[in-house]
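Below is a filled-in request sheet from our internal design queue. Each sheet records the structural input a requester submitted and the sequence that came back. We keep these sheets so that new team members can see what a complete request looks like end to end.

REQUESTER: design group, bay 2
PRIORITY: normal
MODE: inverse folding
CHAIN LENGTH: 311
BACKBONE (tokenized):
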């Protein structure tokens, strides 16, 4: 506009240009007023929407500022309480461990009484498990407890002598119980023959069907390779029933004794004791068998002499 007015030749041209510009301005104002009138509703809505958006942004900024302040305060409080919480957590773990140790001590104090009951009822596997676990605890986590020193010595001494009892029971079942079954069958046959007054000689003892440990091993030797592992598994799976008589099944009872000796780690001593006492035990079997045969023959002679005398 300034360039146009300055390059004009005279005042008339400037006035003409000025009038043209004023007319253009007036036309622009009229067009603007018309557009405002036409779009008044949209303009009002846009202004109100912009105001509401501005208010929401302002409120959100204030809320975010407040959240930041709260987070900073929480961070400070947590930082202050962290050491105290860690201390309480460690104390809780210590108290829990102490309670577990006290419960274990109470259980171990009852071990001698329970051990006597198991030994009296001949449940040797339970007694061995109880004794081994108690000694391991006394020599492990409870080693520093001075009040358990006497109990530790007592249980350790019982553990050292436990295998002697198991070896004696094993020999009793291995040599005495197995031969007693043969003697019982012979006596029953002799009794029956005396009742029917049979003058024929006493029949020979049938020992082919007796389940001796030797036959148990022989039958397993001729089996397939997989069955030997099954025999080992059966020994590992042997369990003791507290409600049944442990000596009812002699083979299972001897398996229980072997398992107890293995837990006591006394298998080499057991093998050595069996080897040392083998000759003596076999001589005792021969002696007992000879005595039984002589007694049976004497009793049969007495019965025959009484039958030949009418009085």
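RETURNED SEQUENCE:
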């Amino acid at each position: 506009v300034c360039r146009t007015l300055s390059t004009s030749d005279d005042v008339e041209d400037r006035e003409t240009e000025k009038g043209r510009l004023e007319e253009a301005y007036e036309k622009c104002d009229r067009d603007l007023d018309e557009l405002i009138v036409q779009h008044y509703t949209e303009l009002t809505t846009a202004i109100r929407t912009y105001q509401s958006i501005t208010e929401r942004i302002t409120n959100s900024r204030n809320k975010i500022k407040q959240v930041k302040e709260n987070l900073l305060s929480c961070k400070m409080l947590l930082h202050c309480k962290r050491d105290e919480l860690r201390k309480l957590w460690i104390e809780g773990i210590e108290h829990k461990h102490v309670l577990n140790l006290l419960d274990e001590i109470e259980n171990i104090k009852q071990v001698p009484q329970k051990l006597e009951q198991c030994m009296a009822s001949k449940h040797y596997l339970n007694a061995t498990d109880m004794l081994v676990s108690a000694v391991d605890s006394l020599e492990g986590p409870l080693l520093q407890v001075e009040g358990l020193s006497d109990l530790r010595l007592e249980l350790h001494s019982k553990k050292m002598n436990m295998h002697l009892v198991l070896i004696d029971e094993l020999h009793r079942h291995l040599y005495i119980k197995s031969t007693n079954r043969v003697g019982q069958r012979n006596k029953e046959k002799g009794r029956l023959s005396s009742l029917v007054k049979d003058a024929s000689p006493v029949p020979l003892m049938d020992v082919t069907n007796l389940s001796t440990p030797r036959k148990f091993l022989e039958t397993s030797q001729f089996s397939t390779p997989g069955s030997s592992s099954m025999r080992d598994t059966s020994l590992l799976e042997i369990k003791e029933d507290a409600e049944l008589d442990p000596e009812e099944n002699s083979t299972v009872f001897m398996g229980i004794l072997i398992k107890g000796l293995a837990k006591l780690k006394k298998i080499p001593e057991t093998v050595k004791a069996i080897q040392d006492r083998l000759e003596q035990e076999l001589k005792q079997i021969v002696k007992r068998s000879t005595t039984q045969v002589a007694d049976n023959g004497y009793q049969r002679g007495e019965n025959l002499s009484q039958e030949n005398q009418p009085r």
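SHEET NOTES:
- The two ends are 174 Å apart (CA to CA).
- The CA atoms of residues 2 and 234 lie 117 Å apart.
FILED BY: M.R.
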